[in-house]
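Q&A log
Question type: sequence-to-structure
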Amino acid sequence: MNKKTLNDVDVRGKRVLVRVDFNVPQDDSGAITDDTRIRAALPTLRHLLESGARVTLMSHLGRPKGVDEKWRLNPVAQRLGELLGQPVQKVDDCIGPEVEAAVAALEPGQVLLLENVRFHPEEEKNAPAFAAQLAKLGDVYINDAFGTVHRAHASTEGVAHHLPGAAGFLLAKELEKLGGALANPVRPFVAVLGGAKVADKIGVIENLLPKVDTLIIGGGMAYTFLKAQGLEIGRSLLDAGHLEAAAETLRTVQEKGQRLELPTDVVIADSFKNPTRSETVAATAIPADMEGVDIGPETARRYQEILRGAKTVVWNGPMGVFELPQFAHGTRAIAETLAEVSQTDANVIIGGGDSAAAVEQMGLADKMDHISTGGGASLEFLEGKSLPGVAALQDR
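Response status: OK
Response body:
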C-alpha cells in the first residue's frame, strides 16, 4: 500500500470531501433493506468527525438517467444519522451555489450528504469541469468507496486531480487484504472462482494461476471448461466466445504442471427457473436435454478437503444457482468450510458480489475474515489491473 491513507492526513478543521459507496438496496417503498455499505464507512466517518473535520459526502445510488426521485439519497441520510448518532444534513444537488453555501456553513464535527452524483451524466463521463466543481467543496479528498475505484468517474478519479487525495480506512483495508493475498500469501494459497461467465474471470484466472497453489472452479463458468475438454454439457451455460480461451488455459495448466480443479460430478435439472426434475451425475455424463445447476457432493467434498488445508483463500463467485435452496448445496459447502477455516490462522477473503450475498444469506458473514465491499473492483484487482480511483491518490 504505497498510497497515503487517512492516518497520513491532518484533517483538523478542514473541509474533507469523502467519496463513499452508499449504493444500498431498497424495497419498493424506498426503505433500505441492507445497510452493510453504510456501516462499512463508519470507522472513517467517526475518525473525521472526532478529529473536528467538516465532512461532505458524495455517493451514487442505482443507475438513474438524470434526476429521478426513486434514487434520491434521503433514506441514506436518515439511516446514516441513526448510525452516527447525530444529524446528517442532506442537500438536493451535488454542485452549485446552494451546495457550496451548505458546505461553507458546516461546523467542525458536522456532516453533509450531497445528492446522488449520477443525477449528472458528467459523473460517469469523468467530465473535468464537473470534477472541478465537486473539488471546490473540499480542502482534502478521501476515497473510501472500494466498490467504485475501478471506475474512472468524476467523484472517484477526477476530483483527485484537484485535491490532495488519500484512502479512507475501508479502502486501505481492502487493498491491504487483497494486495497481501496476491503479493505475499501464506501458503497453501487457494483461489475459488465461480459465477456464470468465463468472460468475467478469464483475466483473473490467468493472473492467479502462477500465484496460487490450487485454483478451484465451479459455477456456470465450469461448463465452458468441461466443454473445452470435449465433454457433453447439455443445455448448461456455455460462454462460446471464450471456449478457446478456456482450452488454452487448460493446455497451459498441463504444460506448466499447475493445479486447476474442475467438477467431477454435477447437479443437473431440466430447468433452473422452474425445475421439475433434478439429479446428480458425473461431469462426463450430462444428458443433452439437461443443464448443470450446482457442483455435486463428491466435488464439494474434494473442494472442502483442499480448502481445509489452505492458509490463504480468495473466493469470488458461487458454485451454482444458490438463490434456489435445492441448488445451493455446493455454495453452502464452500461457505461453511471457509467459515471454519476463518476461525484458524488462515486468511480468508470473500471477493464481494454474489459470494458476499451468499455468505450473508447463509448467516455466515460474521465468521469470515474479510468480505469485500466491491465485487467488480475486487475482480479487477485480482486480475492485476490498475484501479483508477486508487491510482489517482497521492503516493506516500
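Response note: The mean pLDDT is 95.
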